[in-house]
Amino acid sequence: MSHSKLVPLTDDAAANESNGTPVAGWAAGVNLAYHVGVDPQSPAHGNDQFVSTGGGGVVVGPTLVRDKAGEIWAAWFDNSFKGDQGYYADRILPTPKARVKAPGSGGNLANNQPLEAVAFTNRVGGGVYVAYCVPSKTVECTRIALWRVGSASARVVPGSGTGLASHVAIAAGPGGHLSIGWYDSGMNKIRLVRTNSAATGFGSVRTISAPPSDIAFDGLQLEAGKGPLDVIALTLQDKTGVTAFWAAELAS
Q1: Residues 25 and 34: beta-carbon distance below 8 Å
Q2: Can you tell me whether residue 103 is helix, strand or coil?
């Protein structure tokens, strides 16, 4: 799925076109690289394609999604450590579109990179959405924002303003709802909130206990395609010193 022989073990992603053709994407220094289709040869005969990060830094946590129209979009974090640092999104197929930066997503002294794949999803009913931390000069995550790519502003996710949020995740559910989750290190809790069907407002914030005996919270993912919300966390366990996955299912 790539012409390049230097694809990272992490910072890679994939999506399918409407006809089932797979698209792979990965961090390639100051570029997001992507490749359409598979090839029986390694490396693949077809060339890889590239999109500039936006800020001149390294691509972090890229995610690919297919929107309602069948177009493939990418989102990533650019860790340039300069004023243009932040979260970016770009349509890469059928043709690249001018990348756009998420409002308030960077350009400060605090490094607010996602620590995992960027929380990026397509919404049933239309639109692609990014959830991300908004930093200040001293705080990595003053709040979490939900941004419909292309909009001039983003919505503040309720309950996320403790200053200790991280590991932001998002999932699209039936009827247009979006679920946003994050880990709050001050509470040692996972917090969750769901939007209305138009993704213009939020319901009440739910809190569930983090997995027990963890010394490091390493990742959070959500899935809501069938209705109920599946929550999957990755932790490093204190007693055993090994990583472990934890899962819970919540009613929609």
Answers
A1: yes
A2: coil
DSSP H helical segments within the chain, as ranges? none
> Residues 172-227: pLDDT tens digits?
999 999 999 999 999 999 999 999 999 999 999 999 988 876 778 889 999 999 99
pLDDT digits (tens, 9 = 90+) for 111-133: 899 999 999 999 999 999 999 99
Assign 22 to helix, strand or coil: strand
Write down all domains in the chain, each with its CATH number in brackets. Answer: 12-250 (2.130.10.10)
What pTM was estimated for this model as a whole? Answer: 0.94
**Number of Cβ atoms within 10 Å of the Cβ of 14:** 14
Of 170, 214, 211, 207, residue with least CA distance to 191: 207
Nearest to 126, CA basis, from 76, 61, 71: 71
Cα–Cα distance, 142 to 87 (Å, whole number)? 15
According to DSSP, the β-strands at 143-148 and 128-134 are: antiparallel
